[in-house]
Amino acid sequence: xxxxxxxxxxxxxxxxxxxxxxxxxxxxxxxxxxxxxxxxxxxxxxxxxxxxxxxxxxxxxxxxxxxxxxxxxxxxxxxxxxxxxxxxxxxxxxxxxxxxxxxxxxxxxxxxxxxxxxxxxxxxxxxxxxxxxxxxxxxxxxxxxxxxxxxxxxxxxxxxxxxxxxxxxxxxxxxxxxxxxxxxxxxxxxxxxxxxxxxxxxxxxxxxxxxxxxxxxxxxxxxxxxxxxxxxxxxxxxxxxxxxxxxxxxxxxxxxxxxxxxxxxxxxxxxxxxxxxxxxxxxxxxxxxxxxxxxxxxxxxxxxxxxxxxxxxxxxxxxxxxxxxxxxxxxxxxxxxxxxxxxxxxxxxxxxxxxxxxxxxxxxxxxxxxxxxxxxxxxxxxxxxxxxxxxxxxxxxxxxxxxxxxxxxxxxxxxxxxxxxxxxxxxxxxxxxxxxxxxxxxxxxxxxxxxxxxxxxxxxxxxxxxxxxxxxxxxxxxxxxxxxxxxxxxxxxxxxxx
Length: 498
What we know:
CATH topology of the domain at 3-160: Immunoglobulin-like
Helix content: under 10%
Number of helices: 5
Distance between the termini: 61 Å
C-alpha cells in the first residue's frame, strides 16, 4: 500500500474513532472498516441525565445534560448497531427522554403517556430497538426541561459514512436564558410578569413583510407587504453553538482542502435560524436524517427541531465560520472550521443586517431520494393551527392539550394530514413515531422531503403523507416549546390501542 493510500484509508477510518463522543466535531483515530457493529461493554452505551455548570459569556449557569460514554454529550451508533441503551437518571428530578425522529415501538418513544411515566430520579430505564440511520437528537419531554438544555445529538451511522473520505462535524444550536423556564413561560402568559421581567412578547415585535431584504426567496403566502407576522416569543440571553457563544466559539481543526459532513441540529426551544456558510457553498444531502437529492446553497433555513446534513468542500488552508443567525434579529452564533495553523479572527456577535423570517424556500427545493410509493390516501385529516399572544394560548382544531380528540388511524392505511396555519406565527410541526413526506406547500403539490418536522408558515399550509406502520399512541405537536406547553399538541392513535 502506498503512502497516499494509507493516508486515504486513515482519513476514512477517522470518523468512527469517537462514535460515541459527538459533541461538536467527531474527531479522528484509526478504526476497522467492518460494517457490522462490534461488541461493546454495557457502559459503552449508557446515557446519563444529569446537571452540569455551563459558562455563558463568562457567567455560570446550572443546566441539564445528556451525557454518553466518556462524559460526552449524546450517543453515536455504528452501522448495524442496535439502540441498546441504559438511561440513568441522575438529574435530581423525574425525566423522560424522547428519541426525536427515531421510529421505536411506542412505549420506547420517550413520551409521558400513562403507560410510560417519567423515570424517577435515581432510577435507570433500558431501551432496545433497531434505529434508522441519519442525524437525530434526543431531548426531555418532561415539563420544560428541554429549555434547560436536557438534549443532545443522536447520530446513527450508515455504511456509507464508513466508506466516505470526509470529516464529520456536529453543530447543535440552542437558545439560552439565565431565567428559569417557568419565568419565561410566565412572561408570556402573564402580561404583568412580562413587564416586570423586562421581556418582550412577539405581540410587540410584529415583523413587517417587505421591511427587510427578501432576496432569500422567503414565502409568505397570504401575507402582503406591510402585514405583520410574529417572531421570537422570548428575548434570550444567548444563543449557543455546541454550548458556546460566538464570543468564544468552538474552533474545529480540519484538513486543508478536505471535505466535511456538517450535521446541523436546531435544538432550540423557540428559535428559528438561518445557517450562513459565508464564502463556502454546501450541498444538502439529507433532511431530518432522510436522504434528499443534492441541493446547493450558502444560506439555509433551519426551523426548530429540524436537521440538515450538508457536504462542504473546503477550498484551502483558511478559517471558515459557520454561522447561525436568529430570524428577525442580528444576533448570531456559530463555530469555525479552520485548517491546522490557520489564524482565527474574532467574529462580531451580531450581523450587519437583520435576518428575514425563516421560510419554505429550501423546502420547495428538497426532493426525497426514496419517496412514498404512489397510493391514494385511505384517510385525510385537516388540522387547523391557531392561537395568539393575548391570551397566550395555541390550539389544534380548536382543542388544547390534553383535552383533545385523537386522530384515529388503522395499521396499513395511507394517511394524509393537511395543516392550515390560521395564526401569525410559524409552527414547526413534529409527528412522533413516523417519517412523513411533504406533498404540498401552500397549495402547490411537491415531491418533497421525507421528514419528521416541517415548518407551517403564518397563514400558510403544508400537507404531509405517511403510511400507518407503527402501531401505538403518538404525540403530534408544535415544537416551539411554549406553544406546546400552552396547548398546541394532539394525539395520533391506532385503532385497538388503549
